[in-house]
Design goal:
Blueprint (H helix, E strand, L loop, with lengths): L2 H5 L3 H18 L2 H12 L3 H29 L1 H22 L4 H15 L2 H9 L7 H9 L4 H16 L1 H22 L12 H6 L4 H32 L3 H17 L1 H11 L1 H20 L5 H29 L4 H30 L3 H27 L12
Helix pairs in contact: 2-6, 2-7, 2-8, 2-9, 2-10, 3-4, 3-9, 3-12, 3-13, 4-5, 4-6, 4-7, 4-12, 4-17, 5-6, 5-7, 5-10, 7-8, 7-17, 8-14, 8-16, 9-10, 9-13, 12-13, 12-16, 12-17, 12-18, 13-16, 14-15, 14-16, 15-16, 15-18, 17-18
Length: 403
Amino acid sequence: MKQSFWQAGHKPTLFSAFLYFDLSFMVWVLLGPLAVQIAGDLGLSPAQKGMMVATPVLTGALLRLVMGILVDQIQPKRAGMIGQIIVIAALAFAWLNDIHSYQQALTLGVFLGVAGASFAVALPLASRWYPPEHQGTALGIAGAGNSGTAMAALFAPGLALAFGWSNVFGLALIPLIITLVLYTILAKDAPNPPASKSLTEYFKVLQDKDAWWFMFFYSVTFGGFVGMASSLTIYFNDQYGLDPVHAGYFTAACVFAGSLVRPIGGNLADRIGGIRTLSTMYVIAAAFLLILSLGLKTQLTGLLVVICAMIALGMGNGAVFQLVPQRFRKEIGVMTGLIGMAGGIGGFYLASSLGYSKQLTGSYQVGLSIFAGLAIIALVGLTFVKQRWRTTWGSAAVTSAKI
């Protein structure tokens, strides 16, 4: 990593963005690692399990647009504080009153979606402090908060076994409250933020075809990542008969791998260009998702293939957000919301389709194969636009960043 990166920006804010993102993602996917135990107590079908873990992903996706607008209106720090307080209140209510039905689990999932909307806060909070040549690295570090999903998978099933799954909601309040305090003290909004816009101006960006391309590209990379992160505990339990705790360990390994490489993907995109990096990641992700769809026989082989797919998706996430600030720097708040929303919708589709695939066909092959096909379509789309991008907003006369 270039020495000049550490001399730029505001390190306490970058750390705060990462920490806030990390803990928010931990609770966003919390129902996934607990799904096997919750489903056993509530008597859920495979499709209901899939929908339960997909609901926070969908609501988080939709709320990212709302949070992106809020970021531009009241600044990222204040928007993040509001989101954290809502999530803490929802978890406290679920802990004190318990979850007794499928409908109540879905309701909690809706409120946990607020944590998923943290994406639309953390990235602008970090991005606005850094110049174009360091955007990939800065957003990769902030976006490495994806690793919170691994913490949920690593600790939640074991804590549920020891204390009961409803008490995990109460235990999660401890790190969330600590994070809120640190965030309040350390985070600082960047000077000279973009001017606030009217609501109609926000939706003007959707008239730009590049906005739709970015939304689609991220729906595949991030959608694949979060959809798999939400579903892997169920997958390893169903596919290989692992108990919830060991399935959680397998899930944590996969998610850690995909999360920790996000800064590497951003940094690689800074060095060789976002388009080249993203294209490579689509090829790798599609290949390993197709291999996984074949129904691998051994636990170790399945684990290794999932890790490879998650690494490709995680690096792809970093590459997408190396490109976005170059194209939409003035609209980074609303674009983060829109693109994040699309990513969450992709995750909702994958998580829910895996549940339905299992229920209707007895395997996950159809769901995984279709998503691998989406990665190939994204690769074709990126090939279609790359020449125009490199000769217009990505040309050397416009930016010092490599596109």
